[in-house]
Amino acid sequence: MSDTRLATITLLLDVKGVASTLGLGVRTVWRLSSTGVLPAPIAIGRSKRWERRAIESWIAAKVGEVTTKPVRRKR
Prior knowledge:
By secondary structure, the chain is an alpha+beta fold. It is 52% helix and 13% strand.
């Protein structure tokens, strides 16, 4: 396998790769993608792939979000 092909492969993630990266199930990845929460995948033939960079950016944006709603504890 050429270096160019290997570099291209590592830039794209399949649904299992996205699920593993996010610590989610495959079904959850599809649901989040279909509702627009996750970046949309790229269609390559019948396959769907996500750009690793887009997923990493999405993670960084989510980490940067801060919830201001106080947590209520039951007594």
